[in-house]
Description:
The chain is α+β, with helices and mostly antiparallel strands. It is built from 6 helices and 19 strands. The protein folds into 4 domains: 57-68 and 334-429, no CATH class; 73-82 and 246-329, Elongation Factor Tu (Ef-tu), domain 3 (Beta Barrel), CATH 2.40.30.170; 85-115 and 212-245, CATH 2.40.50.100; 117-209. The protein is 30% helix and 36% strand. A hairpin with a 2-residue loop joins β16 (384-392) and β17 (395-406). α3 packs antiparallel against α4 (169-209).
Amino acid sequence: MNKNKESTPADLQNLLGNDQPPRWWRRTTTWIVVAAIALGVGGYVYWRSQQSAKAAPVYITEALKKGDITLSVAANGTLQPTRSVNIGSELSGTVKRVLVDVNDRIKAGQVLVELDTAKLQDQVAQARAGVNSARAQVAQAAATAKEARATLARFEEVSRLSGGKVPSATEIDSAKAALERAVAAEAAAQAAVTQARAALSTDETNLSKASIRSPINGVVLSRSVDPGNAVAASLQAVTLFSVAEDLTQLKLDVAVDEADVGNVKVDQKATFTVSAFPARRYPATIQRVAFGSTKTDNVVTYTTTLNVDNSDLSLRPGMTAAATIVAREAKGVFMIPNTALRFSPATAGAVAAPSGGSILSKMMPRPPGNARPKTAGTDRRGGGPRQIWVLENGQPVAKPVTTGISDGRNTEVSGEGLSEGMAVITEQRAAGSGS
């Protein structure tokens, strides 16, 4: 008798045979392919995210801060005495003695140089003799006039006594004419005396000028004469000495450019340096701004005079000075670098784009990464409405501002919405660019 046995999966598998394939989700190859695809997609997504991060622009910022800013004007010039005199000679002659030298302190009226006076003394003696001669001529003319007057008086008396018979009318007329000539001669002699005295005075003045004296108190800056030199004075006086009145007070004449002269005013403060003391800054005050201009190599400048205190006598006339004039000051104001005023965000094409775009977009040329479009007002130098960019949540945001004075590196700004510490963009760099 046969017994029925219960069928098992193994028996069923044996019955169906070993060549039946397994289900797809049980296949190892399927899962290997799925894993490979997942890894590929994940890698691609990660690569794209990295490329996008690298392509994002990098903004360089500086914090908005408050401080003091000064508008200054630079100019160069030369130190000069407040008053200087060139002392010369009105006379020609030979130098006999020189009594002072360079750097000597002198007083008004002090004799500096003596010329040889031999000829001048002879001229004075001759002029005095001329005066004496003129006086003698006056005396002679006076005597002649006295004689003519007496003769006329006698003729008139005789005519009265004779009843007009003698002398004749002709004789009386001759006597009157003789008297008039005598009076005129006396007047001419008096004039000759005055003329002779004037000539004597001139010669005496020339004699006194042979001793050349200082007109002021001061210091001898230069000397160009020695004993024995011949002085030839023609149309112009010969300069023998240059004298400065007071070296404790100097003036600095600087040339201010026409673009800056509008900011320069009388009584403004300034400082300057000289090559002899490069680490020292001397104070000065503007005394005068010239209206007349000077044009040199097509550059127009205006001479500006500054008063300088030189009590310690460290400065000398003729030194070249580099001056900085304080035109305007602003204290406790917002200020930004000038580069922030020139900044404007780059266009989309100026920033490196991801390489996953179309083939056509890859082949199209792109502008360089630092290209920026110019905006209105970028090149303006004066104060007025402008625009800056600040970084908010990683994105540039425009802020309208009003500019003030600038020191060449920073500029004063004001406007609504400004706060200390705000990140002001000064530069934009393409992703991956060096620092």
